Amino acid sequence: MLELKGLQKSFRSNGTVREVLRDINLNVMDGEFVSIIGPSGSGKTTLFQLIGGLQQIDAGEIWLDGVNISGQKGHIAYMPQQASLLPWYSVKQNIALALQISHVPKSTALKQAEQWLQQVGLAEYANEYPHKLSGGMSQRVSFLRALLSPQKLMLLDEPFGALDALTRLHMQRWLLSIWEQHRRSVLLVTHSIEEALLLSDRIIVFAANPATVIDEIKVPFARPREGELWSDSTFNELKQRIYEQLDA
Amino acid sequence: MENKRALWRSLLPPVIMLAVIFTVWELIVRFELVYSWLIPSPLGVLKEMAIGWERLLEHWLATMQLTVLGFLGGAVCGILLGMVLHFVPLVRQAMYPVLILSQNIPVIVIAPILTMLLGFGLLPKVLLIILVCFFPICIAMLGGLAQVDQGLRNYMGMIGSSRWQQFVHLELPSSLGSLFSGLKIAASYSVLSAVVAEWLSPKVGLGGYMILSSRGYMPERVFAAVLLIVLTSLLLFWLVSLVERLLVRWRPRKEAR
Ligand SMILES: Nc1ncnc2c1ncn2[C@@H]1O[C@H](COP(=O)(O)OP(=O)(O)O)[C@@H](O)[C@H]1O
Ligand SMILES: [Mg+2]
């Protein structure tokens, strides 16, 4: 469904040119969960901004469902590292706003937001302002907001990067359980090898300076997945393999 | 309970200070250390207010009407111009220096010009207040619209929101804090400008009353007018804060932290 063909991107500042992305080719199938793992500063966020149409592409094309969407906005649902909930809207309104911007009528959007908050046990927060929520709660709302958006592809940019280890673990399980019930195409950026292995169908490993795809790993675990993966020997082999690639 | 006690404790020192100042002042006038036709005694001022409250009320209402008209006019002009300048960067670049220059022309100079152009009616006075208070409002609006959280802007861009959607859902709410700071400053400016405007044609209003009383060597009346002007300024400031609190409900209350 998503196809990146030979994407290139450089930034120019003070006369020097810094090549960030070189010849990125990757694709995401319908309903597939793909993770990108790579060193910090390798250009993962930049890649997302190209897909989202916020940055100009130097060369290459982005195709979604057989349509060339290079440089166009509004084709993806998005969950950033910081929850980025608008402080002046309630939790419910925040979710509804994302849907409205994607051309869902307001009343439908609000109704849907309410239903889903109920469904995932967050109904009591529906009318709270975001400053009342903990980091984990904010990220749940932020994920829900992306999940409910009508676009078929979700981009998650280090969604749990700012959370403490324990909350992070809870959030991964939570996301996994919801996603396995409501499959969508997902492209996830993460630092965490375990997170990538736990959640994804496929993992793409980036090298830095400039970013290139150096490996692509099919994750063989059956779904629905459980927490016991940690002790699985394949899990640890794959973890070792990715670790060595990132370390090189 | 705790809160109330804390409030009293914070109020007590300034109240004592004011009481001391007024007592000393009263004593200075009583012992005729200054001419009583120059500086009145505080009790004399209060007595004057009690006797002449009907006349004072009439003047106060006139000043209040002028102030509110001018302030609202200035707010509307300032907010609208701020939005226009925000949307058209070229005009913003061209206008910004002009705006700042215009602020350095003293009110005392503008006021008589306006009167000569437009006569002694309400219009030139309201216009003067608008001129004075639209500037801080416009600048505050512009600053507020520009200071948007980059993470939120990035998010709104990624999900494909239009320029207008970003303005309504992101920039406008972000600007309210800054806008209200500007409105509070403008509120005090507008009261003072109303008084200056009234000096020009001292028929009604506290400004005119002040001038006439001063010419007639009636310092009690002058000080009574001054006191009312200060109170009006505070009242307006409080009203603006109240509107802010009603409008900006999403921020955590300070005492909650
Ligand atoms: N707008 C920009 N202008 C110039 N350089 C940028 C810009 N955005 C990102 N970069 C640079 O591109 C590189 C990749 O950044 P980023 O995509 O945020 O990395 P990652 O998300 O993988 O940590 C960094 O070195 C960063 O300094
Ligand atoms: Mg990043």
TrEMBL record, chain A:
Q: Which UniProt keywords apply?
A: ATP-binding, Nucleotide-binding, Transport
Q: Molecular function terms in GO for this entry?
A: ATP binding; ATP hydrolysis activity
Q: Among its keywords, does the record have Transport?
A: yes
Q: Where is the ABC transporter domain?
A: 2-233
A Pfam cross-reference name:
ABC_tran
Keyword hit for Nucleotide-binding: yes
Q: Please name the PANTHER family in this protein's record.
A: ABC TRANSPORTER ATP-BINDING PROTEIN, TAURINE IMPORT ATP-BINDING PROTEIN-RELATED
What is the protein's given name? ABC transporter
Higher taxonomy: Bacteria, Bacillati, Bacillota, Bacilli, Bacillales
From TrEMBL, chain B:
The cross-references to InterPro entries, in alphabetical order and at most eight, read: MetI-like (IPR000515), MetI-like_sf (IPR035906)
Q: Which family does it belong to?
A: Belongs to the binding-protein-dependent transport system permease family.
Any one GO biological process: transmembrane transport
The protein, known as = Nitrate ABC transporter permease
**UniProt-listed Gene3D superfamilies:** MetI-like
**Which residues are in the ABC transmembrane type-1 domain?**
60-240
What is the scientific name of the source organism? Paenibacillus montaniterrae
Q: Does the keyword field hold Transport?
A: yes
Which Pfam families does the entry mention?
BPD_transp_1 (PF00528)
Give the superkingdom in one word: Bacteria
Sorted alphabetically, the Gene Ontology cellular component annotations on this record are:
plasma membrane
